[in-house]
Structure prediction request, 283 residues.
Amino acid sequence: MSRKRGESRITRPEPSDFTPLPPEEEARLRAEAEAYAASDAQYESFAEPDEEEEPLGPPPGIEEALFALQAWEDPAKAAQAAAHHRAERRYLGVPVPAIEDMVTLWRAQLDVPGRVELAAQLWDSDIHEARIAAAKLLTQARLRPDTEAWTLITSWVPQFDALALADHACKAGAKRLEADPARLDLIEEWIGSSHMWTRRAAFVITLPFTKARTPKPEESAARERILGWATARAEDPHGFVQSAIGGWLHALSKKDPERVRIWLAQEGERLKPFAREEAAKAL
Prediction:
């Protein structure tokens, strides 16, 4: 195949490139290398100097954050989102990856109290994408201090009215629950709530307790406690709660299948068939 015009020619190795050096030349070069390595000379670095990081800019307020979200507004996608989520609020049609990029920047610009304050204001705007951003702003494994963040997240639970927002907020809450499992005391109160989304949240927010293959004693105790909640709500009439129980059991079955088999043998008939199937599908 002929070489295209403008392409550089590849230099092929010549046989002379593989000819051994004369013994005296090779000995001289080896001696120089060994002497240099044994000396106190500083090795030179030929790396390019690092480019200076661009400043992150001032921390955003609620006006700047909403402006950034609204800049991505897509009316067609907003209409699709409204039809899909079926909750009465404003939708912008902003894709989640774009929200995540914004939140990553805001998190870097804000200290913990600032993140909590902005998250509260974003949630209170009642814009779908702003509420997702609020939850993501607080979804961090390490967040110190986190008492105000935990209080804020749990204050959102009675307002849940759609799957996506509930799940994003529960993911943020799950990180705080992992940081302090004593907070299960509050979650247990949700089991008896008259608000269906709150009862569902009790199982979604506690999913991290299903993840360990060799749980610590306190994790095992938490699992048994939550299995007790599943027993208490096994005949819950709402499909979303049934699905959450089935999903929690399914997650646990991947790490402790025998415990789930025992629970299903004792309580499984009380679940709706679809929830029972979900719980057992990995067994």
